[in-house]
Design brief:
This protein has 488 residues and is α+β, with helices and mostly antiparallel strands. The chain has two domains: 196 residues, no CATH class; 228 residues, no CATH class. Helix content is 48%, strand content 18%. The protein has a six-stranded mixed beta barrel with strand order 3-4-12-6-11-7. The protein has a three-stranded antiparallel sheet with strand order 8-9-10, with no helix packed on it.
């Protein structure tokens, strides 16, 4: 039998302690552990839940990596690129890439009898990842890009629906600027895996033939193609146009900037508005696996990997670099962090807040238990003298009080876990604490129930507190049996 633990359990469970002056101090020590542990559990759940929820919400409305025309500037109109199936297949074979889809963007104005509003129409095709977007749909049905009869059907945000007084089934007029139709003399496609151009549309010229291949190292070929492209545009100015659209569904992203203007429609709709050919797109959207969906263990060790492993890169960074490597020089890849810096730049700061809260709460626990331990030693001075007189050494007596303090810590941890985890579960299932979605991107405070983190917090709190109490327990060695036993 462990004598020190036996004596400590007897002292801790003795009813005589209820009347002594150490009782309030013990209660304060227990309360400090309860508050510290429950605050740490709640703070950790909120921090990890908020980061994961915001990341997943952004992944549902914005791709992890985007490829666009290198010549795109700050203009509202995007420059087209030719959809390259070979490039898409190469990107799909890249590690961590789970999906790629083409898209097109077009700015326009919608008008009803009473309201007018600027919008951004996003055109998608049948490859669009509806599984990620589906949770955002509130009413109606999603668009079907493969349905030629539903080309003019669009989905609008709830904010636009409320502002414009539109509902599912309503029609609206869209006004936009269209470039004059280009008169192409030649259709040229570049093969990104080689230095060759392919002539796809024959002309009445002996120099050009269907499917002929031209080596781009020949300066005369470059000169000829520059002439073709320069002669492919009409000299007419852009002209305003109008199109009637029908609302098929209503969705909400939770991102204020997007909800004020985003409209989802078929890719062919945007191509018609631009007067593009069917293979012209604004760019590609690429989704990686395991971004914002790490398991408890992965999400816990990743920050430490970034700190202690030189050159460590998360899956998104690795995939972005791999995609950049296979992307042609005339295209520009960018990731979600650079596209939405106002969101992703401050998310790491939440981790810092969580660390600060945990450190402060551990310090509060240590200070409270230090006071409790010293008062317990002072109260049991006669007991210490008797134990020394009976032959127990200093370390054995120290262990008595360390065991006693451990029982107090464990008692506080049990209550703290019940309160902390209980509040987390209430918020997780019933969401009583709400947020302003326009400011925080989420309608309520998100929490993540992570038992591994809870276990690590409990173990860390217990070990740190007990170790911190070892040094003040050496006060026992300064007490002599003769003086202690004589003490009244």
């Amino acid at each position: 039998m462990n004598l020190s633990r036996y004596i400590a359990s007897h002292i801790s469970g003795s009813k005589d302690n209820a009347s002594n002056y150490s009782r309030p101090v013990v209660v304060i020590g227990v309360v400090s552990i309860v508050l510290s542990l429950s605050v740490m559990i709640i703070a950790t759940s909120v921090v990890t839940g908020f980061k994961r929820s915001v990341t997943q919400k952004m992944s549902g409305v914005a791709s992890h990596i985007t490829i666009t025309n290198l010549d795109n500037n700050t203009s509202f109109e995007t420059k087209p690129i030719v959809q390259d199936i070979g490039l898409m297949n190469s990107i799909l074979q890249t590690e961590h890439v789970r999906h790629i889809q083409p898209y097109a963007l077009k700015h326009a104005i919608i008008k009803t009898k009473k309201e007018i509003q600027g919008i951004l129409i996003k055109g998608v095709d049948s490859n669009f990842d509806w599984n990620s977007f589906a949770p955002n749909i509130l009413e109606g049905e999603r668009i079907n890009p493969a349905d030629t009869n539903g080309k003019n059907k669009v989905m609008i945000t709830k904010a636009l629906s409320d502002a414009m007084g539109l509902k599912v089934g309503d029609t609206l007029f869209t006004y936009y600027i269209s470039q004059p139709r280009r008169i192409l003399r030649e259709r040229v496609i570049k093969d990104h895996s080689s230095t060759l151009f392919y002539s796809m549309i024959p002309q009445d010229s002996a120099e050009i033939g269907l499917g002929m291949v031209y080596n781009t190292s020949n300066p005369e070929v470059f000169k000829f193609f520059n002439y073709v492209l320069a002669d492919s545009f009409s000299s007419r100015l852009p002209e305003p146009r109008v199109m009637q659209l029908k609302v098929s569904g209503i969705f909400e992203t939770g991102i204020y900037e997007l909800d004020q203007q985003l409209v989802m429609g078929p890719l062919s709709l945007v191509q018609d508005m631009y007067r593009w050919t069917p293979d012209n797109i604004s760019g590609y959207e690429i989704y990686v696996d395991n971004f914002g969906n790490e398991s408890g263990i992965e999400s816990y060790i990743r920050p430490y990997q970034q700190i202690f492993i030189p050159g460590y890169k998360d899956p998104l960074t690795q995939t972005y670099e791999s995609v950049s490597f296979v992307t042609p020089g005339d295209l520009y890849p960018s990731d979600i962090r650079s596209n939405y810096p106002e969101i992703f730049e401050w998310l790491p700061a939440i981790d810092v807040n969580g660390v600060i809260i945990r450190i402060l709460m551990v310090l509060v626990s240590i200070m409270a238990m230090l006071s409790t331990l010293l008062i317990l030693i002072m109260e049991k001075t006669q007991t210490i003298g008797v134990l020394k007189a009976l032959g127990m050494n200093n370390w054995g007596i120290q262990k008595v009080f360390l065991w006693h303090a451990s029982f107090i810590i464990i008692r506080g941890m049990l209550i703290g876990n019940i309160i902390g985890i209980g509040l987390v579960l209430i918020q997780h299932f019933w969401h009583p604490i709400l947020l302003d979605q326009n400011a925080y991107y989420l309608p309520y405070v998100p929490v993540e129930v992570d038992w591994i983190r809870y276990l690590s917090i409990n173990i860390g709190t217990f070990v740190i507190c007990v170790l911190a109490l070892v040094i003040p327990s050496f006060v026992v060695s300064r007490i002599t049996p003769v003086k202690a036993i004589r003490l009244d």
